[in-house]
Design brief:
The chain is an alpha+beta fold and 291 residues long. It has one domain. 18% of the residues lie in helices and 36% in strands. It contains three helices and 16 strands. Helix 2 packs antiparallel against helix 3.
Length: 291
């Protein structure tokens, strides 16, 4: 994939990293979090979104999330809130995800990286706690299924989302950031960060702009990257695609795209949502979180 276009365009990258925390029970119920269990065996009325149930917060999750925040130099918010993030998808039985919006648990951290002998600081905007969704199964082994199946074992498994500022300017910097982040989280023992199991997932927000200009371009979110190599390849491809669009007289569309490793390309998934599209509002079944 050619990379010489950096002479004409600057690349701007921000990363959203989901880390699955290592706990025995889920975020809001007592169901186990074992990976690879029989489908839909670790479920209950709470994590399957049955009417009339109430979530009970797992204290261990907050302790683990705060450890990550402290390790990254974040300020721990003494009072934070949970919120409902509303969207419709088959693996989300409640039709909303319990997350954090305006006042997350951790704010303003940093990760120092080194690429090619040059040091750089990538600023962490926030770390918030949220529940995972279920999992859609489209194939069993090599056999394609005539319809998708839903496994809710992963529903309400505890996650933290670590959101960086758009401080990275190359695929190598993005990978270096992920390597330091993964090593830090593993060292403090709150997650195994196994990308093959989905314990660490990364979405990249990528844009380009004419070299030297301060105004940011239209960003595109790229998902479905399950290794550091995939992250690097997906960023390189997406940057080249955006440059080709701009140089052909077109405009980059704000959207979410999926990385297809077999085809070495990204493909449009949906238009990119803004925060207001999710209609966040405070979670009425959980009180403010004081730490």
């Amino acid at each position: 994939m050619p990379t010489t276009t950096a002479r004409t365009y600057d690349t701007v990258i921000g990363l959203e990293v989901h880390v699955q925390l290592k706990t025995n029970s889920k975020l809001f119920c007592a169901c186990r979090t074992d990976f690879g269990a029989e489908p839909n065996s670790n479920v209950c009325p709470v994590c399957t979104g049955q009417p009339g149930v109430l979530p009970v917060l797992n204290k261990k999750v907050i302790e683990s999330a705060a450890k990550v925040g402290l390790a990254l130099g974040c300020k721990i918010n003494p009072r934070s809130y949970f919120a409902r993030k509303q969207y419709f998808y088959p693996d989300l039985p409640k039709a909303y995800q319990i997350s954090q919006s305006d006042q997350p648990l951790c704010l303003d951290g940093r990760i120092d990286i080194s690429v090619g002998g040059a040091s750089k600081t990538v600023h962490v905007q926030r770390i918030h706690v949220e529940e995972d969704a279920g999992k859609l199964v489209h194939a069993i082994g090599s056999m394609e299924l005539p319809h998708s199946l839903v496994d809710l074992n992963r529903s309400s498994v505890p996650l933290i989302e670590i959101v960086s500022h758009p401080d990275m300017s190359s695929a190598d910097e993005a990978v270096a950031y992920l390597e330091v982040l993964k090593a830090t989280v593993q060292y403090i023992g709150v997650s195994d960060c196994d990308m093959e199991k989905g314990s660490l997932r990364c979405d990249a927000n990528i844009s380009i702009k004419p070299a030297g200009e301060s105004k940011l371009g239209t960003r595109v979110e790229v998902k479905n990257m399950n290794s550091f190599r995939a992250v690097r390849d997906a960023i390189l491809h997406e940057v080249s695609r955006q440059i080709e669009v701009v140089e052909s007289g077109g405009a980059v569309v704000q959207e979410t795209r999926l990385w297809n490793e077999a085809k070495n390309a990204t493909f449009s998934m949906r238009s990119k949502e803004e925060a207001h599209d999710y209609r966040y509002f405070p979670e009425p079944d959980l009180p403010p979180l004081f730490v």
